[in-house]
């Protein structure tokens, strides 16, 4: 079986965001980019699934983006993914257009199982997996924290408000990974060395129009400085009074 | 005939969720601004409080009914919503950005060849189209964006849009029995978590961080949360240390929340945490380091020892709550 794992190259979560001059994207100067944290859970689950299935199972990392995205593909290769595909596009794509590129590649590779992070931490679009699944006609379980695959049948635990849903579905399928699904392995030195020899195939991303248009990015209104009421428990009565009479939240 | 805006309303255990009424009010407001007619759809079985939909401004509701549809099935729900949207020629389809909405909306969008915007915190009508505002980078920035395809699918963040009762709308309910739904992907069981309330849905959150020093000290956070009727949250440091489950994590790799009141206890305020909670209406910070970044976003702060302040605060809250 072929397994695809889709990875995205995003600003580190410690990044302070500045708006770029076009006011439609962020200023990338001084920003450290990393593999999307949720995608690491996706990579780990793909590798665990390969280890379980054995045989000629192959895991392929796919990313849509420019040359910089190769860094995140390389990270997946160092963790143990077999090969990478970079679907190149210099222009910015909305989630639909990204899903379109991914689904075309997944179709041509013939992957029956697809893993993604449950969302990317840049545009917080937690829909690429669902869009990709719908474009492919695959079943889909999103925000997965537990997964078991037996033959053609998938049983997944999906995190929702107040608990977990146990979902049954069939292959082919798209799974989006939530923190808690597994503990991603560290890339070993051997893995990092081996990754350098693995191939990253580069090709243009399948053409697709965007269905959304970004008008403007802005920073949230800064919060007004608050008040420090004291340094010990003697400030508690005043705090309670403010919460009740001024904020009216209790 | 005016075009239609469709509200997709979520039921759980046969009851419409609070967020469903937020969708109803939002749809009713957009319909007025854009000159659209409104309809609502519910997929489920016997839904107890359907009549409440009219109270929030949408009268025309269709219930798609089958005993197997009480629980979510992405395959069946997608088919039903897509077919109904086609039948009524919906131009806008609005969901709550709940776990269900986030899962279902993009699937519906693909089948209708529609653009999809999720987790919107503001929707405004301008020149006959909807301009949406979405937080990105977990709220470190905001994006104004619009859908350019003929059909538009949008989800709205729970707890941000208000559900407002209105007078004079009568309920016109249609029930359609669904025969042999596609249950190829289906929820077979719900495992309720131990916590009383989910941070994503709570109106008040009490969160703890590394300043609590050990997992057992979260008892202080839990007691305050109990007194306030609040959900318990946690910082990434507390979750990564294994003190608290990930579902409680607030911040960029956890949940982004906007409650009325957020109480941060022993949390210094790393940038990825601030991103996830800064849009709370009121923020209280309790931390012994008065230079901690959390005080930069807090409305009220006590720069002192959480172990001394939390029990006192719990006691005072209990007093006024009687």
Describe the structure.
The complex is a heterodimer of chains A (250) and B (322). With 250 residues, chain A is α/β, with parallel strands linked by helices. Chain A is globular and about 65 Å long. Chain A has helices spanning 37-53, 70-79, 95-109, 128-136, 189-197, 236-246, and strands spanning 2-6, 9-11, 33-35, 58-65, 83-88, 113-117, 139-150, 153-160, 163-170, 173-177, 200-204, 212-218, 227-230. The relative contact order of chain A is 0.18. In chain A, 28% of the residues lie in helices and 32% in strands. In chain A, the strands form two sheets. A nine-stranded mixed beta sheet of chain A has the order 9-8-7-10-6-1-4-5-11, with helices on both faces. Chain A contains six helices and 13 strands. The N and C termini of chain A lie far apart (56 Å). Chain A has one domain (2-204): Rossmann fold (3-Layer(aba) Sandwich), CATH 3.40.50. Chain B is α/β, with parallel strands linked by helices and 322 residues long. Chain B has two domains: 4-177, 3-Layer(aba) Sandwich (Rossmann fold); 204-321, 3-Layer(aba) Sandwich (Rossmann fold), CATH 3.40.50. Helices cover 27% and strands 30% of the residues of chain B. Chain B has helices at residues 18-34, 52-55, 74-87, 99-111, 218-228, 236-240, 271-277, 306-321; strands at residues 4-9, 11-12, 15-16, 37-44, 60-65, 90-96, 115-120, 122-126, 129-136, 141-147, 152-156, 172-177, 186-192, 204-208, 231-234, 261-265, 282-286, 300-302. In chain B, the strands form four sheets. Chain B has a seven-stranded parallel beta sheet, sandwiched between helices. In chain B, strands 15-14-16-17-18 form a five-stranded parallel beta sheet. Chain B has a three-stranded antiparallel beta sheet with strand order 8-9-10. In chain B, strand 4 (37-44), helix 2 (52-55) and strand 5 form a beta-alpha-beta unit. In chain B, helix 5 runs parallel beside helix 8 (306-321). The model of chain B has no long low-confidence stretch (mean pLDDT 95). Classes of the chains: A alpha/beta (250), B alpha/beta (322). Chains A and B meet through helix 3, helix 4, strand 7, strand 8 and strand 9 of A and helix 3, helix 4, strand 7, strand 9 and strand 10 of B.
